[in-house]
Amino acid sequence: MRILFGLAAFALALPLFAAEAEIKLVKPDTTGGKPLMQAIAERRTQRNFAETPLTDQQMSDILFAAHGLTGKKGRRTTPTARNVLDMEIFVALPQGLYRYEAGSHTLKLVLDQDIRKSCGRQAFHAKAPVDLIYVSNYDKYKTAGMSEANADFYAPNHAGYISQNVYLYAASAGLVTVVCNNVDKTALARAMKLGPQYRIMLTQPVGNPAK
Length: 211
Known about the structure:
By secondary structure, the chain is α+β, with helices and mostly antiparallel strands. The protein has helices at residues 7-13, 36-42, 56-67, 124-127, 139-143, 148-173, 185-192, and strands spanning 22-24, 87-93, 96-101, 106-111, 130-137, 176-177, 198-207. α2 (36-42) packs across α6 and α3 packs antiparallel against α6 (148-173). The longest helix has 26 residues, at 148-173. It is globular.
C-alpha cells in the first residue's frame, strides 16, 4: 500500500525534502472500527508516542472523524452552533503544516516547515507523527451576526466536540492521543502565520503507542 504519510520518515533524513502542495486523502472507512460503546469505554489519554508514521487510511479516517463532510448540505461529523463552521483543522507533519479541506477531503500545504515542537510545551509534541491544531475563525461568527461573546462560548465547545471524536477514533484504531491546552498560543499562531481573525483553541497529537 502506498504510504503518503510515511514520507515523514524520509523528511527527517533529507533536509531538502519538498512537502507536497496538496495531499489527496484516501476515502475514509465509515463502516469499520469497534462498536461505539466499546470505543467509549476504551477511550484514554496517553502521552507516549512512537515516531512511526500513520498510514494513509488512518490519516484519512482521523480527519473525517474530526470534522469531515457527511452530506451535500455541508454537514459535518461534529456539530457547530447555527452551522457557523468556524473551526479549521491544521495538521502539523514533519514535512510541513497543512490545512484540512473537508469539501475535497484533502490537505493543503500552508508552510513547508516542521512546527510540531511549537504545538505544546511537552516534549512528546515533537515526537508524535501528527499534531492536530484546532483553530476558530472568528470572522465566521461576525458573518452569522453573532457576537464575540457567542464566539468565546461556542468555539471552545466546537473544539471539544472535534477532539472527542478523535479520541474515540484513536480508541477504535489502537492509536494514542492527548488533548493539550498547555501551549504558547501566541508563539504558535506566529509560527503558523495566522491572521488576527483566528484563535487557537487546542492541539492534539496522535500516533501509534510507543513500545
